[in-house]
Design goal:
Blueprint: H1 3-16, E1 19-23, E2 26-29, H2 30-38, H3 49-57, H4 66-81
Antiparallel strand pairs: 1-2
Helix pairs in contact: 3-4
Length: 83
């Protein structure tokens, strides 16, 4: 990997993991939004992280939902440390 490739990779990673304000009380990364959209989770309708986590709690513990479970864990951690 040359320097330019490393810088491009870093920029993409930072962009995917930067928090964006969804509404007054809800912030998500671009990656989290993409995962939630791929599972058709209506995160835009949630007023806060607690409401979103409640929606995500209905997801069965199944291997096919590993990515969604990881996103739910990230959201729960963010909520815990930022409240």
């Amino acid at each position: 990997m040359n320097k330019k490739e490393i810088e491009e990779n870093l920029e993409k990673t930072l962009e995917a993991n930067s928090y964006e304000k969804i509404n007054k009380n809800l912030y998500l990364t671009k990656y989290q939004k993409e995962v939630l959209e791929s599972y058709h989770i209506p995160y835009q309708k949630c007023q806060n992280t607690k409401e979103l986590l409640f929606l995500l709690s209905d997801i069965a513990l199944d291997e096919e939902y590993d990515e969604l479970e990881n996103v739910a864990r990230e959201i729960a951690e963010w909520d815990y440390y930022n409240k």
